[in-house]
Design brief:
Elements lengths: L32 H12 L5 E4 L10 E6 L5 E7 L2 E6 L17 H8 L1 H23 L1
Antiparallel strand pairs: 1-2, 2-3, 3-4
Length: 139
């Protein structure tokens, strides 16, 4: 599934919802990795063919799994932890403990290393956003 999204629609949704089960933890360092994973997906979905949080692999406070298909049609399963993101399999909903891949601090860095098409789409979206900001500041 390809998603077309204008760069101006990029989400910054990283806060807990007001009616969330986690409102009791406001102001603490407790994170739910599923919520973090959803935010990661929302940030870069426009630049990949498909991306979603795994419903098959277990999510917990300290780990979540994200399936991503690049525009080159390569599939990956990513692990999200406090250490960052890394590839744990070369297909959806898989985790290979023997696979030793480096952690990336951000999803942008990880996808940049995996997908030239991501790099191009993300760069173009960034350029469009900067041009829109420049136009706004000139008017």
């Amino acid at each position: 599934m390809e998603t077309n999204c204008s760069p101006m629609e990029l989400s910054n949704n990283t806060e807990f919802e007001e009616d969330s089960d986690y409102r009791d933890f406001e102001g603490t360092d407790v994170k739910d990795m599923r919520l973090e994973a959803e935010a990661v997906v929302n940030d870069v979905l426009f630049a990949v063919s498909n991306m979603f949080v795994s419903k098959t692999l277990p999510c917990a406070e300290d780990v979540a799994y994200i399936n991503v298909e690049t525009r080159e049609r390569n599939r990956y399963c990513l692990e999200l932890t406090e250490a960052g993101l890394r590839v744990v399999a070369y297909d959806f909903d898989q985790a290979d403990d023997r696979l030793q891949t480096p952690y990336h601090e951000t999803v942008y860095s990880l996808l940049d290393s995996l997908s030239p098409a991501y790099r191009e789409v993300f760069g173009n979206a960034l350029l469009q956003r900067l041009e829109a900001l420049k136009k706004d500041s000139q008017s």
